[in-house]
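User: Let's play a game. I give you a shape written as tokens, and you guess the letters that built it. Ready? Here's round one.
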């Protein structure tokens, strides 16, 4: 019984480690590792990688890392302001109802 559990655990580890081969780099780095002709499918390296592709990939990664938090804060701010304005309108309508 114990040997069976160890065997199952080892098989599971091998399967998990074999599936993570595609997760060694971010998508920008994977795109940059393609050759200039675009050989290889998404996430696959093919041929020789040119330095221009790596520079472009790192640039996109930096843009994503810098722009992501600002975009998230913009969306959060938009919905916060929208909710506050809606609540203010409801309060003003309730105050107008009481006035009459």
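Assistant: Ready! My guess for every position:
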């Amino acid at each position: 019984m114990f040997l069976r559990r160890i065997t199952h655990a080892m098989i599971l580890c091998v399967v998990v480690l074999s599936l993570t081969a595609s997760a060694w780099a971010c998508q920008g780095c994977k795109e940059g590792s393609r050759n200039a002709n675009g050989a290889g499918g998404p996430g696959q390296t093919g041929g020789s990688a040119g330095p221009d592709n790596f520079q472009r990939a790192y640039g996109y990664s930096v843009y994503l890392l810098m722009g992501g938090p600002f975009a998230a804060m913009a969306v959060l701010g938009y919905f916060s302001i929208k909710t506050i304005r809606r609540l203010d309108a409801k309060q003003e309508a309730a105050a107008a109802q009481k006035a009459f």
